[in-house]
Amino acid sequence: MQVLASYCRGHDMGNYDNVQDVLNVFKQRKYHYGAGEEEKVQFNLIGSDLANRDLAGIDLVNARLMTADLEYTDLSNANLGRANLQGANLKGANLQGAIFQGTNLLGAEHLTIQQLSKVKTLYGVKNLDHKLKGLVRKYYPHLLENPEKEELK
């Protein structure tokens, strides 16, 4: 998987078919070891150009997405729990049903309350813009509450 992450960082992202094939592998990844324990993989996608990609339903728990370009990317139902999106461009990204539990959003660019209103959870989110957090508290306080595990499936 780290080889695929390197491919996303180091190659011309203009060739949509090849890149989307790589991302589809990410979306399907599941590792099980021993008694069903999942391996804790931390993808390093720092600075990756993932704009306009289909990442719907992808598991990016603990991913390092600092300064990644996620403009107009479909992140619907993606799990970004404990991911680091510091400085990432989220302009127009589809966040419907995405999980942001414990996610670092320090300096995330172009993130709107309209996008955040559609996520599944923001519980434990770190470094969310002060104004956005105030709006979430006012209009969508349930997103900041600890969700039931069943709700995150």
Structure overview:
The protein has helices at 2-10, 16-28, 113-116, 130-139. It starts with a helix and ends in a 14-residue tail after the last helix. Residues 11-16 and 31-37 have low confidence and may be disordered. With 153 residues, the chain is an all-alpha fold.
Q: Treating each run of at least 4 consecutive H or I residues as one helix, how many helices?
A: 4
Please provide the ordered H/E string of secondary-structure elements. Answer: HHHH
Number of strands: 0
Alpha-carbon distance between the two ends: 23 Å
Structural class call reads mainly alpha
C-alpha Rg (nearest Å)? 15 Å
Mean pLDDT: 83
Strand content: under 5%
The percent of residues in helical segments reads: 10-25%
Oligomer: single chain
Low-confidence stretches: 11-16, 31-37
